[in-house]
Amino acid sequence: MGGPSASVVGAGLAGCEAAWQLARRGVEVTLFEMKPLRFSPAHHSPDFAELVCSNSLRASGLGSAVGLLKEEMRRLGSLVIAAADECAVPAGRALAVDRVAFARSIT
Questions:
Q1: CATH code for the domain in which residue 21 is found
Q2: What is the pLDDT at residue 54?
Q3: Which domain holds residue 57?
Q4: I need a labelling partner for 85 at 20 to 30 A (CA). Which of 1, 8, 100, 101 fits?
Q5: Distance CA 63, CA 45 (A)
Q6: Which residues of 7-24 are buried (b: 16+ CB within 10 A; e: fewer)?
Q7: How many CB atoms lie within 10 A of CB 2?
Q8: Domains identified in the chain, total number
Q9: Residue 4 CB burial class (10 angstroms; 0-12, 13-18, ≥19)
Q10: DSSP letter string over the chain?
Q11: Mean pLDDT of the chain
Q12: Separation between Cα atoms, residue 40 and residue 44, nearest integer Å
């Protein structure tokens, strides 16, 4: 029998991050996503994690719990945070992203 395997349902922020972290650790991952076969009214693109918004990522400063969590995720090699940093747009002290570029980067 082969090595460990896992199934992840949904290619949103959590599903993509879970699949990425498992794969980095040598787990064979099957990611199940309804797109591009079906779309909800909110989905417009076949890309993953397309529904990210400023409230998803929020504050970026280390003086807040949310900012500390993001820094911990960076140190753990987070796919989502790396893509967010790559696709960041000016938003004061919040981490906001270009949604199209972010979804393409995640996909």
A1: 3.50.50.60
A2: 61
A3: 5-106
A4: 8
A5: 35
A6: ebebbbbebbbbbbbbee
A7: 5
A8: 1
A9: exposed
A10: --S-EEEEE--SHHHHHHHHHHHHTT-EEEEE--TTT---TT--SSSTTTT--HHHH-B-STTSHHHHHHHHHHHTT-HHHHHHHHTEE--TTB-EE-HHHHHHHH-
A11: 90
A12: 8
- The lowest-confidence range among 17-26, 36-45, 53-62, 95-104 is 53-62
Q: pTM here? A: 0.85
Q: How far apart are CA 87 and CA 51, in angstroms?
A: 14
Distance CA 14, CA 19 (A): 9
Which residue matches tokens 């040598």?
A: 26
The amino acid present at 90, given as its one-letter code, is P
Please tell me the distance from the alpha carbon of residue 89 to that of residue 33, in angstroms, as a whole number.
28
Token pair of 88 as six digits:
């960041």
Please say if the pLDDT value at position 72 is more than 70.
yes
